[in-house]
Amino acid sequence: MSDEDDLEDFEPDQDDLEREDDEKDTEDWEDDRKEEEDLSEEWMPTPLTEDMMKEGLSLLCKTGNGLAHAYVKLEVKERELTDIQLLRSYIHLRYVDISENHLTDVSALNHLTHLLWLKADGNRLRSAQLNELPYLQIASFAYNQITDTEGISHPRLGILNLKGNHIRLVTGMDPERLISLHTLELRGNQLESTVGINLPTLKNLFLAQNMLKKVEGLEHLKNLTTLHLRDNQIDTLSGFSEGMKSLQYLNLRGNMVSNLQELAKLQNLPKLRALVLLDNPCTDESDYRQEALVHIPQLERLDKEFFEEEDRAEANEIRQRMKEEQEQEQDAETEQDIGPDQP
C-alpha cells in the first residue's frame, strides 16, 4: 500500500462537511467551548509510555531505503496524555492521532519529518505552530484553545482544520509557503474579519459561527468554489469580487441581510450556482426568490430549491423590462441636457 493510497482513507468527505454546515444545531460548539474554559483543575502528569506506543502502533511499511520496516500509524487518543516527548524517537511515523488528551505542547512532532496526517483535536493547545513538515497533507487542531494562525507553513498541507478555537484574526498564513492548501476550516471561532485569508489555492473555506459583519480581503481567491458563512452578523454583500471567479456555492444562512438590493452585488460571481439565504430578514419579502433570480441570472438553486423554467422566463422578462426602463430614463436625461431645438 502506498502512502497516497493510505492517506485517502483519512481525508474528510466533502459531502459530510457540507451536510454538517447545512443542518441547524448539529453541534453545540458554544457549550463545548464553555465547558473547556471552565476546566480549572490541573491534570495529573501522564506521559506517553512505551506500553501505550505498543498498543497504538499499526500499519507496517517499508522505510526510506526499502530494506527495513517500521510501524507508521499511531493512535493514542483519549489517554489523558499531558506529555508526548517519547514521539521524538519514532521518526518513521506518518499518521498520528493524539486527539482528546490534555496536551499543551506538541513540539515533539517537529521530529516526525515523514508525517502525512495529524489529528490533535480536543486538547489544550494554544497554538498550532510547528516547524515546517515537508510531507504533511492533513492537519486537524479542532476544539483546542488556539488564538492565532501563526507558524503554519507546511508546503504540502492541503486540509487544515482549526474549528472551535478562539481565533479572532487570521495572520501569518503565507501563500508562498502554503502552496497546496485547498480546504480551510475555521468554523466556531471568534473571527471579526476575513482579512488575512489571502490564499489563492483555496477551494473550500468554512467560516460559519463567527462574528463577521462583512466579507473583505478575499478578492484573490480565484479557485474558491465553496464558501460557508452561516450564522455570522453579515448585513452587506459588498466584498464579493469578480476575482472570485470560481465560486459556485455560497451559504449565508442565519445572517442579517435585510435589503434584497444587496443581491445585485453577487452578479459579478460568474459561476455562482447555489445560494443559501434562509434565516435572513430579506427572505421575508414576498418576491424574494424572484428578486434573487433577477439579480443573479446564473443561479440554479436558492435555499435548496431549484428554479423552474417558468421562474427563469419570468425573471428574464422583468430584467428586460428593467433594462428598457433604464434606457428610456437615460434618453430622457440626454434630451433634457440638450434642451429644446432652437429656431
From TrEMBL:
Composition bias type Acidic residues, residue spans: 1-41, 326-343
GO BP annotation list: flagellated sperm motility; radial spoke assembly
Keywords: Cell projection, Cilium, Coiled coil, Cytoplasm, Cytoskeleton, Flagellum, Leucine-rich repeat, Repeat
Localisation per UniProt entry: Cytoplasm, Cytoskeleton, Flagellum axoneme
InterPro entries, alphabetized: Leu-rich_rpt, LRR_dom_sf, SDS22/Internalin_LRR
Stretches the record annotates as Disordered: 1-46, 306-343
GO cellular component: cytoplasm; sperm flagellum
Top-rank taxon, per record: Eukaryota
The keyword Ligase is annotated on this UniProt entry: no
Job description of the protein: Essential for sperm motility and male fertility. Plays an important role in the proper assembly of the third radial spoke (RS3) head and the bridge structure between RS2 and RS3 in the sperm flagella.
Subunit structure: Component of the axonemal radial spoke complex. Interacts with RSPH3. Interacts with RSPH9.
Protein name per UniProt: Leucine-rich repeat-containing protein 23
